[in-house]
Structure formats: structure tokens, C-alpha cells
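I am sending you the entry underneath: sequence plus C-alpha cells. Let me know what the C-alpha cell row says about the fold:
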Amino acid sequence: GYTLAHLKLGLIYNAARRYDEAVQSLNLVVAKQPRNAEAFENLGEACAGQRKYAEALAASEQAINLRPASPGAHYFAGIAAAALGQREQALAHLDRLKQLKADDYAKLLADFIEKKAPGKQ
């Protein structure tokens, strides 16, 4: 009932960049359904949108544990890791995106890593 509604609300709030409301809705979902990979992936996106990168990384990693081949979860985990200065971890997620043939996500993540966690020149 309400859990599905909150999941859909979370998706809508993310699309509207209303990340605080997305986090509220998605936290309700993961509390009731701790094995809902989609909810954790979207929670990772919302936390990244809030620039709460440690929380984004934790949610995205939980999504990956539940659904290892999720391009979105690897993308947001990589974004969060890069923002936290964890370049090697971000690059590992980039490699996984390439393995998954998620080229759009891979390009966006590669650009973000170079901006936020550049390699030694």
C-alpha cells in the first residue's frame, strides 16, 4: 500500500530535485522493505543531491549488495566516493559500469571523478 506510494513519491521528488522530501519518502520504504534495491538506489541519488555523500555511498552500496548489476547504484556510489576523495573506490565503480556496458553512466562518472578526485598529474 503506502510503501509503493512512498517509493513512487521518492522517484518523483528526485526528478524534481526535491531531495529532502525524496529522502523522507525513501527512508520510509527502506525501513519497511530493507531488501528493496530500487529504494536504496534512489535514496543514494537523493543523498547525493543533498551533497550528503557518506549517506549516498552507504545507500548505494546497500543497493549494490542487493542488485550487483545496477548501473544507477554504481553511478551514485562512484559519485559519492569521488566527492569524498575516495578515487580508487570511484574508479572501481567506473570499471563496473564499463563492464555493465552502461556507457552514458560511465562517461558522466569519469567526468565527475576528474573534477572531484583528479589523479596525480
